[in-house]
Amino acid sequence: MERPIQKPIGTPVEELDTPTMVVDLTALEKNIETVHGFFRNRKAKLRPYVGTHRCPALAHMQLAAGGTVGGVAVGTVGQAEAFADNGIADLMVTTEIVGPPKIERVCALARRAKVTVVVDSASNVDELAKAAKGHGVILRAAVDVHTRLNGAGVEPGRPAVNLAKRVAKAKGLEFVGFTSYEGPILEKTPAKLAAESRKWIQQVLDTREMAEKAGLDVQTVVVGGTHNYEVAGAMKGVTEVPAGAYALLEERYRPYRKQLKPAASVLCTVTSTPEPGTAIADAGMKSCGNDTGLPGARNVAGATVRSLSAEHTNISMAEAKTSLKVGDKVWLTPWEVGVTANLYDYINAIRKGKLEAIFEVTARGRYR
Amino acid sequence: MENYKPVIGTPVKQLDTPCLLLDLDRLEYNFKVMADTYRDTPVKLRAHMKNVKSPLLAYMQMRTGGTVGGVCCAKVAEAEVMVEGGINDILIPNQVVTKDKIARLCALAKRTSITVCFDSTQNLRDLSAGAVAAGVTLGVAIEVNTSMNRAGIRGVEEGVALAKLARKLPGISFKGVMSHQSIGGMPDNETRVLEGRRYIQMCLDVKSAVEKAGIPVELVSTGETWTYDTAAKMPGVTEVEGGTYALMSTFMDYMDDFKYAGLLLGTVISTPRPGVAIGDTGMRALGAMCTYPEAWPAMDNVPGVVVAELLEEQAVLKSKGPMPLRVGDKYLVRLGQQDLTVNRYDHYIGVRKGTVEAVWDIPARGCHN
User: Fold this and answer.
1) Does residue B277 have a pLDDT over 90?
2) Pairing relation of β-strands B330-334 and B262-270?
3) Other residues' Cβ atoms within 10 Å of the Cβ of residue A298
4) CB atoms within 10 A of CB B13
5) CATH architecture of A25-241
6) Which B residues in the span 4-63 are in contact with A, Cβ-Cβ below 8 Å?
7) Does residue A350 sit in helix, strand or coil?
8) Where along chain A do the CATH 3.20.20.10 domains lie?
9) How confident is the model at residue A195 (pLDDT cuts 50, 70, 90)?
10) Does 3.20.20.10 match the CATH number of domain B24-249?
């Protein structure tokens, strides 16, 4: 478990023990207002994907802001358990749930929360239905449709509709609709972003239409994300957008989502300046992560992160406008907040440079 | 936190996934390779806890043999966990710089032997001041840059100057020199040995220069898993900081003296297209390094199948021929860089011959402070 030196509320941020994950509440609240504000007066609603930050305190802030379906989306059953245990009563698990141990758990969870699962195969539908019936619970089930990504999902159109029919017939399951994750589509031009997003989402909406013609009641279509929430949320037939990264934003989305501000950082300390042009700091792959990309260095103009090793940041100062000395603080913006939050047990929440709260990252490590 | 503690005796096939397994036969084999290597040499192993994050695993290596009787830790928080676990000889081959952290380090030095590495006069003065204020003595060693261009002094003269200053300052005891080495790609054995020698010699050159200045050097802590045999044969080296060897990483696949003892157990959740299976060992559960493609996970027990892509919570598995995996099948994955994966779990599930034998905490998970 993480063992930071916990500082009293009110501590100036530069005195926090490092490396540490910091969330700026002012930026977070602004991001929430931007995205939730968009959904407040629309038919489509937000279902915040909270598997990104894994933090119930943040999830409750999102739900309190309005514009949502009143529930969240998560990546795994374990994450759903963590958020349910912390007061959230409507959860959608966006990964297929296979095998007895996990199906037992999701059925138990369905006794105390409204749970939606996703399915992409007949055998999994049968397995889930049998267990749900045995437990005397109803699992809401959406058909996972394969569009742009290489992951799970049944093909759109006829195969998806056939599976939907099987779900609708299965005792123990309630067919609710279709879902697909087509992102992230990273496009700066609004017209291109809209065209590319619509191309993939339309496959799911066409599937919906085909299912309705076949007599199925389709309550929901869950598509889109931070990359295109305004496009997905405006398409007729889309009911829920499971965006997650918008709340804290991240380096990856920064050039494409100008209406949102980075709210999460890893605060680190320079531990060595071994030669001109190089500064070494104390955040590495284990405390910032570079699974898919390198963090940005925010507070030192011109500095760039050259690489991360397990425990160190290697910062290039070649183009930097100022210098760094041992003991100085550097603010890193994670490439992917979902990677970084999963490394911490605590988040320091700050406002105007002072520590305001310490949040637990309860769903950290909930991979199963 | 990660919260899976299955019942002892559970068959591996019935485990919930993904979860982090230790193949105990393979782990004990790796410990024995190290014990055999260092048993009759003056050089000993100082196992690196950044890799296993558990005092128990440190004790298992110590009991098997070949060690200095202490460990190294990358961070102060990691060192605290080891001291609380009863280990009383700690080397931190890293810099500890802030006032808070130096105070925390000095608190440990009241109860145990602590040596920390430095590469600047300012840091040395701060360590000295902290130690004096706490009324303790900190061991210090110079970090020498050899191949990684990270921290560490860049020249021999700088080392001599730092050693001289270290001898003068109160509260600290100068011990010697330390270096880390890295090598890219999958080197052949000759390249591996020659490069290892060349880098470690750079560290030994600083030792010689410091000794020529009349300052005794008792510690030369260098070498790691890929140089474990090379370093053992270099006169002057006193200890080797091996860590990866215990659980193994695919980026060191060429070190075939060691077995893959750390494995992620996964379940196939979908077979959506021909030749493709989707597993539940995604990027979050495994970890990855965008800048180092060699550190990529590999299947342990499914010939012909590769981990083609990692999504957030899904692994895309591909087969050239027909996909042998079915929905519900279990599979084992070798770790790309094992310490990144270990750092994402709070428990090891120790298995032997298909059955859970032990469930152990990973108390230093997340100890990056």
Assistant:
1) yes
2) antiparallel
3) 14
4) 10
5) Alpha-Beta Barrel (3.20)
6) 4, 14-19, 50
7) strand
8) 25-241
9) very high
10) yes
Structure token pair of residue A13:
């941020």
Interface touch B291/A283, C-beta < 8 Å = no
Phi, psi of B196 (to 5 degrees): -60, -45
Average pLDDT over residues A230-252: 98
- Complex ipTM tops 0.90: yes
pLDDT at B240 (0 to 100): 98
CB contact under 8 A, B363 and A278: no
pLDDT of residue B293: 83
Contact criterion met (CB < 8 Å) for B314 and A95? yes
DSSP string, B36-65: HHHTTSS-EEEEEHHHH--HHHHHHHHHHS
Residue pLDDT, tens place only, A101-116: 999 999 999 999 999 9
> Mutating which of B73, B158, B265, B368 best tests the A interface, going by the most A Cβ atoms within 10 A?
B368
pLDDT (tens digit, 9 = 90+) per residue, A80-137?
999 999 999 999 999 999 999 999 999 999 999 999 999 999 999 999 999 999 999 9
Write the residue in B119, B344, B368 that is nearest to A272 by C-beta.
Answer: B119
Position A307 pLDDT exceeds 90: yes
What token pair was written down for A340?
């970084």
pLDDT digits (tens, 9 = 90+) for A269-285: 999 999 999 999 999 99
Q: What is the pLDDT, as a whole number, of residue B264?
A: 98
Within 8 A of B153 by CB-CB distance, chain A residues are 274
> So what's the pLDDT on residue B291?
85
| Whether the predicted pLDDT of A148 surpasses 90 | yes
CB pair distance less than 8 Å for B289 and A75: no
Closest chain B residue by Cα to residue A365: B2
How much is the pLDDT for A248? 98
Residues of A in contact with B310 (CB under 8 A): 291
| A238/chain B closest Cα distance in angstroms | 23
Residues 196-255 in B contacting A (C-alpha not used; CB under 8 Å): none
The residue among A214, A211, A219, A145 whose CA lies nearest residue A182 is A145
- What share of chain B in percent tops pLDDT 70? 100
- Which residue of B100, B273, B308 is in closest CB contact with A17? B100
**Residue spans in chain B of domains classed CATH 2.40.37.20:** 12-20+256-361
- Find chain A residues with C-beta within 8 A of B288's C-beta: 291-292
Fold of A13-22+258-360: Lyase, Ornithine Decarboxylase; Chain A, domain 1 (2.40.37)
Round to whole Å and give the CA distance between A288 and A307.
Answer: 11
Residue B301 confidence (pLDDT) above 90: no
CATH of B12-20+256-361, one of 3.90.1010.10, 2.40.37.20, 1.10.3660.10, 3.30.1440.10: 2.40.37.20
Residues A303-308, mean pLDDT to the nearest whole number: 96
Reported as a pLDDT band with limits 50, 70 and 90, residue B292 is confident
What are the chain B neighbours of A4 within 8 Å (beta carbons)? 77, 369
Residue A243 identity: A
d(Cα A273, Cα B145) in Å, to the nearest integer? 12
| A256: phi then psi, degrees, rounded to nearest 5 | -105, -15
Tell if the CB–CB gap between A51 and B312 is shorter than 8 Å: yes
Query: How far apart, in Å, are the Cα atoms of A67 and each of A38, A43, A174, A296, B16?
Result: 8, 9, 25, 31, 36
Would you call A274 and B151 a contact, using CB atoms and an 8 Å cutoff? yes
Instruction: Provide the CA A275 distance to its chain's centre, in angstroms.
Output: 39
